[in-house]
Amino acid sequence: MVYILGVTGFSNGGHDASACLIQDGEIIIICEEERFSRKKHANDTYPSIAAWNCLNQAKITLDEVDYVAFGWDIPQRYKQRDFKLFLKKFTNQLFPESLFPRKKEPRCEFIPHHLSHAASSFWTSGFEDATVLVMDGQGECHSTSIFYANRENGIKALKQFGVMHSLGYLYKATSGFLGLGKENPGKTMGLASYGKPQYYFDCLKLNLDGYEFVGFPNFLNTDVDADKLGEIVNIWYDYFQTKFLLQPFKTSQSWDILKNQVNYAFSSPVIENADLAASVQALIEEIGIHLVKLAVKLTNCSNVVLAGGVALNCSMNGKIAKLPDVQNFFVFPNAHDGGTSVGAALQLSYTLGIPPIKKSLSHAFWGIEFKDDEILNLLQKLGISFVTLEEDKILNVVADYLNNDKIIGWFQGRNEIGPRALGGRSILASPRSKTLRDKVNNTKGRELWRPLAPSILQSQAGNYFYDADKGSLFMLRALKSKENRIREIEGVVHIDGTSRVQLVPDNSFYGQLIKCFYDQSGVPVLLNTSFNLAGEPIVGSPLDAIKSFFSSSLDVLVINNFLIHKK
Question: Spelled out in words, what is the top-level CATH class assigned to the domain 163-336?
Answer without folding.
Answer: alpha beta
